[in-house]
Amino acid sequence: MAANADPAVVFVKTIQEKKLLAGRRVVGQGFGSGFVYDSNGLILTNNHVIESATEISVVFGRTREVSATVVGRDPPTDVAVLRVEATGLPALPLGDSDAVRVGDWVVAIGNPFELQHTVSAGILSAKGRTHQDVRGLDETGYYEFLQTDASINFGNSGGPLLDTHGRVVGINTAIRAEANNIGFAIPINMVKEILPRLLKDGWVRRSKVGVHVASVQPEDAERLQLGSVVGALITHVIPGGPADRAGLRPDDVILEFDDKPVSGAERLRWIASLAGVGRTVTLRIARGGRLFETRVTLEELRQGPLTPPLTPFAPFR
Are 166 and 188 in contact (CB under 8 A)? Predict the structure, then answer.
């Protein structure tokens, strides 16, 4: 399987140029991994691999280096799409990250420490890791990481995490620096949801409900007379926002978003962000032991640049 997948994995090289106030120019070089998912020259990698780059190239095999351009990128999920002028390339199929189970075998391929085409194997250790589990990441990003013990290191960023059939189930993104073999990958199903927007527009326009939320804890379920520990607990309603106009208030629990179950805070943030600016949606709410539905018209989510991840939890290049 690894031998079949390896030709589609590329070494991503970047050059960054910065001008200082004194007029001096500083040139730096970065590197990471990526993989072809469309044989007509489309490559997936991490946004942090190519961010601020003035030149990008990808290396196929050991020696074939080709210039690449950015098709689209999404800092909140750390995903970027590159294009090279080539056709008939070996490509990896995108799998189903919802179907992969904890304990399943997975394989990582990448270029750790510029050691090109390194293969490592392990298991899927956990699913649904958030910024609360991978501390140091910007809280405004979107995280539902797959956790693996497959050996991944600096330089693996953007490389594929594969199931035993050679299908991509994640994009390797971050490590826990002080631990042995704890790595994190973006679930490929999240990538597939935003991919059409990146290809069409080059970026992702996001919508918002206008609330701050947290996942429901056992003590919340008892206090708020909930039947189970699911849903997104509203901790703050933004004045004048969509939720405020709809009459939502703190301690309301959002259970469904347009008939989609809301398992927790991160799930609500994700589906609300992609639902569409100006769209009116139906929310199912639990309040004081009763259930009701309300309609909310979503507004655009204005999002500034994300702060860099902090050590000991950090994306690796």
Answer: no
Burial class (CB in 10 A: 0-12, 13-18, 19+), 271: middle
Domain that holds residue 278: 207-300
Judge whether 157 counts as a catalytic residue. Answer: yes
Write down the catalytic residue from 33, 48, 252, 273: 48
The CATH number of the domain where 59 resides is what? 2.40.10.10
* pLDDT tens track for 109-127: 998 777 778 899 999 999 9
Return the pLDDT at 311: 29
- State the catalytic residue, choosing from 33, 125, 157, 215: 157
**Would residue 48 show up in a list of annotated catalytic residues for this protein?**
yes
pLDDT at residue 17 is higher than 60: yes
Identify whether 312 is preceded by a cis peptide bond (ω within 30 of 0): yes
* 241 lies in the same domain as 263: yes
Q: How many domains does the chain have?
A: 3
